[in-house]
Every structure is written in C-alpha cells, then in structure tokens.
Amino acid sequence: MTRILEGKLALVTGGGRGIGASIARAMAVAGARVVVCGRSKPDLDAIAKEIGGVALQVDLLDRNALDEAMASAGHVDVLVNNAGMAESAPLDRTTDAIWDRIMELDATAPFRITRSFVPGMIKAGWGRIINIASNAGVTGYGYSTAYCAAKHAMVGMTRALAIDLARTGVTINALCPGWVETQMADEAVTRIAQKTGRSLDEARTSLAAMSPQRRMIS
Questions:
Q1: Are the C-beta atoms of residues 39 and 57 closer than 8 Å to each other?
Q2: At residue 39, what are phi and psi to the nearest 5 degrees?
Q3: How confident is the model over 148-195, as pLDDT tens digits?
Q4: DSSP state of 180
Q5: Containing H/E element for 131?
Q6: How many angstroms separate the CA atoms of 163 and 171, rounded?
Q7: Quick one: pLDDT at residue 208?
Q8: Does 41 share its domain with 135?
Q9: Which residues are annotated as catalytic?
C-alpha cells in the first residue's frame, strides 16, 4: 500500500478491536498518524503501541466526555465512525433504555463527532469521513428494531451530508458490511444460542446466512 495518507491525522472510533483495529492498522500503513478512540484502555493501548499511534479513551455514550475528547484531538483529516453496538430483542422487550443506548452510540455519537470535525475539514479544503454502517442500514432484520433504525439513520446522515459537502473537498461515505468475524459477532452468536437453544455452530450459520455469500467476513 502506498503512503497516500502521509502527514494526515486519522481518528478511528471503536479502534481497539475488530473492524476498527483493522482500519487503524491500514491507516497507519498508508502513512497516517492514527488516534484510536474507545472505552477499553488495554485494547486501545495495545493497538496504539502496535501502530505507533495514540490511544484516546472515552465513553461515546457520555456526551460531555465525548466533547472534551474531540476537542483534545485537534484537527482531524480522516474520520472513521466505527464504534457501535447491537442488542437483539422483540419489540415488546425493546425498552426505552435499549433504544436510547443503541441510537446514542450508533447514530447520535457519529453525528456529533462528524459535526465537531467537519468545519476544520472544510477550512482545510480536504477531509474524508467513513461511516461503518451495516447491512442493517439498508434492510431490516428481525429482533433488531433499534439497531436497524440506528444504522438506517447513519446511512441517511451520510447521504444527506454527501450532498451538503459536495463542493468543499470533503467526502463522506458509508460502508455496509454483513457479519464480520469479530467479538461483536461472537457475542451475537452466544445470545442466539442462549435464546433459541441452538448450538453455537447453528447460531453462527444462521448469522452467516444473512450475507449474500452465506458466510461471515474474516
């Protein structure tokens, strides 16, 4: 990979593990200085040490802490809104707390983070924003009302901002992967097995079946 991001600062939320950690590694290989942001300090520290980046511990559900963390990051050239969560429940068990928590982390936090950094990107005449959404942002899944709503919100925000930013030198795109072999996927498999009585292998197969390729991304 060429060092196309030499001299740029990239911030990756949820950068301590899974998709976020892989993105952080790729950004570093491309020459960027990388800030990995999230809740788990040990995970963040490990990735930051590996790639020569900076760990920024913050709970994205804490708005005041989030504002302070984003202010401390300074100017960001590349923003990757990757942090997210999913909880499965039928509608009658989707409490206000579940709804609020998922919407806050998967939709509101990316909106607020993006709003923090876009003015600086516009002033610089260059910026890249990548939102890690999900297949759930373009289709519906059972027992996932809150998650699908939040990811649809992220995709809608991306589409609207792509129009708003079209002439500024700042681009924004959303990626909508299916299930990826991550800790979140492992947790989902465990929940499905516990709730349905299926084996772990059967639960994993049911998740993989949601992908057009009938397999998880590794």
A1: yes
A2: -95, -35
A3: 999 999 999 999 999 999 999 999 999 998 766 666 666 665 666 666
A4: B
A5: strand 127-132
A6: 9
A7: 65
A8: yes
A9: 147
Query: Does a structural domain hold residue 137?
Result: yes
Closest CA relative to residue 150, chosen from 108, 107, 89, 111: 107
Q: Are residues 88 and 185 in the same domain?
A: no
| 74 and 145 housed in the same domain | yes
Q: Provide the greatest CA pair distance for the chain.
A: 55
35 strand-pairing partners = 11, 54
Structural element, H or E, at residue 96 = helix 96-103
Both tokens of 148, joined, read: 């699908």
Which range of residues forms the domain containing residue 163? 9-177
- Could you tell me the CATH number of the domain that includes residue 109? 3.40.50.720
Task: Copy the structure tokens of residue 46.
Answer: 């490990």
CA distances 148 to 109, 139, 140, 178, Å, are 16, 8, 6, 13
And the tokens for 32? 């960027």
d(CA 6, CA 9): 9
Identify whether residues 122 and 190 lie together within a single domain: no
Cα–Cα distances in Å, from 149 out to 2, 93, 185? 37, 16, 19
* Gap between the Cα atoms of 97 and 191, Å rounded: 19
Residue 61 counted as domain residue: yes
Q: What is the pTM of this model?
A: 0.87
Query: How many domains is the chain partitioned into structurally?
Result: 2
- The tokens for 128 are 């890249």
pLDDT in tens, 107-162: 999 999 999 999 999 999 999 999 999 999 999 988 899 999 999 999 999 999 99
Identify whether residues 170 and 125 lie together within a single domain: yes
